[in-house]
Each structure stands twice: as structure tokens, then as C-alpha cells.
Design brief:
Number of helices: 2
Structural class: mainly alpha
Low-confidence stretches: none
Radius of gyration: 19 Å
Helix content: over 70%
Number of strands: 0
Order of helices and strands: HH
Distance between the termini: 38 Å
Shape: elongated
């Protein structure tokens, strides 16, 4: 096998960082939807369910905002 036949792919660092950010954002959306569905469907106590969801989103959304700022600045 001759490896010289393959071309080198040159992606800028900014493009790679943006792709990783969008991948993480997509995974976050899927995970959040699954979490929300399960807490709503199988949660017994409505107050605890709402408290958990509010706590989850209040912690993770600022982290995503920080990741977005870092991804767009680099």
C-alpha cells in the first residue's frame, strides 16, 4: 500500500473547533430531550422534577454559552 497516494487534508483549527462545538451542541440537545422526557414521564413528584430540570438547565446553559464564546473567538 502506497501512502503517497493519499492527499493531506488541511483544515484550519477554527473549522475543527467549530465542528466539535456543533457536535457537542447537538449531543447536548439530544441528551437534554431524553432527560426531559424521562423526568416528565417517570418522575413521581412534580416539584422535584421541575427543580431538577431547572437546576440542570441553569448549570449547563451557561457552560454552553462559555463554550460558544470560546469557539467563536478562536
Amino acid at each position: 500500500m502506497d501512502l503517497s497516494q493519499f492527499e493531506t487534508i488541511n483544515l484550519p483549527l477554527h473549522t475543527i473547533i467549530m465542528l466539535v462545538f456543533y457536535f457537542v451542541l447537538g449531543m447536548y440537545a439530544i441528551f437534554s430531550a431524553i432527560l426531559y422526557y424521562h423526568w416528565k414521564a417517570y418522575g413521581n413528584d412534580t416539584k422535584i422534577t421541575m427543580y431538577t430540570l431547572i437546576l440542570y438547565f441553569s448549570i449547563t446553559i451557561p457552560l454552553l454559552i462559555i463554550m460558544a464564546i470560546m469557539a467563536f473567538i478562536i
